[in-house]
Design brief:
Shape: elongated
Number of helices: 20
Strand order of the largest sheet: 6-9-10-3-11-12
CATH superfamily of the largest domain: ABC transporter type 1, transmembrane domain
Strand content: 5-15%
Distance between the termini: 65 Å
CATH architecture of the largest domain: Up-down Bundle
Number of strands: 12
Radius of gyration: 35 Å
Structural class: alpha/beta
Largest sheet: 6 strands, mixed
């Protein structure tokens, strides 16, 4: 939790004012039992109506003051806890966006989502409880004990027995629940992961009639979560009845021994009632302290998970944040791979091995190969989604590590394998590369991507509302719109990563023709279709991370058995 204290800086006033008003509320709680005792011992005993009325008015007034103080304290506590949780969530989200693909792959979407939402909410609850009770509970505890000792020192010894017993119960609960909260959070991550996977792949699940299988997976994960959550809840729930039982026995003892004192004249009836009230307040304070401790156990586990993200440093680091003005010689390759090897982990095998390749400005390059041959791995090194394990990647003769992320990625329009659109208007989606793109630029990109026909039929056209993930478009339409998005702003480098897989052959051919005619930058086409890349200026053939052929279509048919096999299998 200490590492998260930096987020409290902007809420110092709230953190001070809230406990201060809760302190004033506690003062009224401690004074009222004494006033009630005087009402009984003086007013009721002497049948003095005026005295009872005056003291009753004072008690009511103090109650009103206590309520007002409580409301003000709650307001500032809520504002501080909500503000701190906002700052944590904002900082966490910003940090996640600095992580490279390697770190995002490591954590996974489900656990990141849980940590940003659920874990931060738990911390918010703990902070709110702490602010409200940090002054109230200890002062109520100490104040009740002191007032009880003032009334009767001997009878107050019962307090000294009660307090250690309650603290012992709290300690046992603390030791039992601490590891269980961590286990529960991990089980929650698993349930979230299965839920997300199932909902995203619901069409596949139904197509293969796997509903029963997925339900059984979910049931197993849910049962684990239920068992761990039930166990920790049952142990935590035992805290209140156990402490209440101890307090109730203490009250019985007070009434028993206090009654004897009243009979012999050592204690008045009002003092005995006040003593019982103070004992009840002491029990309330102890239970509140116990609840704070339990809340902090939960928050501590959540804070560990959050700090794990904050402590994770991106493996791809932006070394230069300044804009670079480049003067590029005509014979400088637009992109160059120099002895590049790449693996997804320290102990993982190389996905790309010793790649050396020059791509000149305006060239169209095709990359072809079987599944897992390393095609996407190559293009992920260009915008620095990952860094090469060995060797260097250059753009315009400059190592990609020397560019700022903004400068580097503004040169590139990339269409990933998975076509994803975002909730909002179509116009907003198409302006992702260039936020001030004109409607003419958007229309040009839509035309090149072969999207013009269906876009013109949309209600509102570019103001058409896109559902999350682009679910109100077909797979082929989503692919064409993501191509249009990449084309807006005329990128220097256009990367199409198997982005025509959902298109029919006629649309694919028309798309390639339009790109060749209207796009004058460097183009990299990644595909498993030989027809998609055969007209490229240069074709790179990949197999198991190795380049097994580079050349034009006709040359590769003669000299590269792998390419010949791919082409033959698709055309005969």
């Amino acid at each position: 939790m200490k590492k998260l204290l930096r987020f409290l800086k902007g809420y110092k006033v709230d953190m001070i004012v809230a406990p201060l008003f809760k302190f004033f509320e506690t003062v009224t709680d401690i004074i009222i039992p004494l006033l009630v005792a005087n009402m009984i011992d003086i007013g009721v005993k002497n049948n003095d109506v005026k005295f009872i009325a005056i003291y009753g008015a004072i008690v009511i007034g103090l109650n009103i003051v206590g309520i007002v103080c409580s409301i003000i304290g709650q307001h500032f506590a809520a504002r501080a806890s909500a503000g701190v949780s906002y700052e944590i969530r904002k900082g966490l989200y910003e940090h996640v966006n600095t992580l490279s693909h390697a770190e995002l792959d490591k954590f996974g979407t489900a656990t990141l989502n849980n940590r940003i939402t659920h874990d931060v909410t738990v911390i918010k609850s703990a902070i709110a409880k702490f602010i409200r009770l940090v002054m109230r509970s200890p002062f109520l505890l100490i104040g009740s004990l002191v007032m009880a000792m003032i009334i009767d020192i001997k009878l107050s010894l019962i307090f000294l027995v009660v307090a250690p017993l309650v603290l012992a119960v709290v300690f046992v609960v603390f030791k039992l629940t601490e590891p269980l909260y961590d286990k529960t959070q991990k089980n929650l991550d698993k349930v979230s992961e299965i839920t997300r996977e199932n909902l995203q792949g619901t069409r596949v699940v139904r197509a293969f009639n796997k509903q029963d299988y997925e339900e059984s997976r979910f049931e197993v994960a849910s049962l684990r979560l239920r068992k761990s959550a039930s166990k920790v809840t049952n142990i935590s729930a035992a805290l209140t009845p156990m402490t209440s039982t101890i307090i109730n026995f203490a009250i019985i003892a007070v009434i028993w021994f206090g009654g004897v004192q009243v009979n012999i004249g050592g204690l008045t009836q009002g003092q005995l009632i006040a003593f019982v009230n103070y004992l009840t307040q002491l029990g309330t304070a102890l239970v509140s302290i116990a609840n704070i401790i339990i809340s902090f156990i939960k928050a501590q586990n959540c804070a560990k998970r959050i700090n794990q993200i904050f402590d994770t440093k991106p493996s791809v680091i932006e070394t230069n944040h300044e804009h670079m003005e480049l003067k590029v010689a005509k014979d400088t390759p637009k992109i160059e791979f120099k002895n590049v090897s790449f693996s997804y982990g320290e102990n993982a095998k190389y996905a790309v091995k010793n790649l050396s390749l020059k791509i000149m400005p305006g060239e169209t390059i095709g990359i072809i190969g079987g599944t897992g041959s390393g095609k996407s791995s190559i293009i992920n090194l260009i915008p620095r989604f990952y860094d090469a394990t060995l060797g260097n990647v250059f753009i315009d003769g400059i190592d990609v590590k020397s560019f700022s992320f903004h400068d580097l990625r503004s040169k590139i329009g990339i269409v990933p394998q998975k076509a994803v659109l975002f909730k909002g208007t179509l116009k907003e989606n198409l302006r992702w590369r260039k936020k001030d793109a004109t409607l003419e630029e958007i229309a040009r990109a839509v035309k090149i991507s072969q999207s013009e026909e269906f876009v013109n039929e949309l209600e509102g056209k570019y103001d058409f509302k896109v559902q999350a993930g682009g679910k109100n478009f077909s797979g082929g339409q989503r692919q064409r719109l993501t191509i249009a998005r990449a084309l807006v702003g005329n990128p220097e480098i256009l990367i199409l990563d198997d982005s025509a897989s959902a298109l029919d052959f006629a649309t694919d051919a028309a798309l390639r023709k339009a790109i060749k005619q209207y796009v004058h930058g460097t183009i990299i086409i990644v595909s498993q279709r030989a027809n998609t890349v055969k007209n490229a200026d240069k074709i790179v053939v990949m197999e198991e991370g190795n380049v097994v052929g580079i050349g034009k279509h006709a040359d590769l048919l003669k000299n590269c058995p792998v390419y010949n096999e791919i082409y033959s299998s698709q055309t005969k």
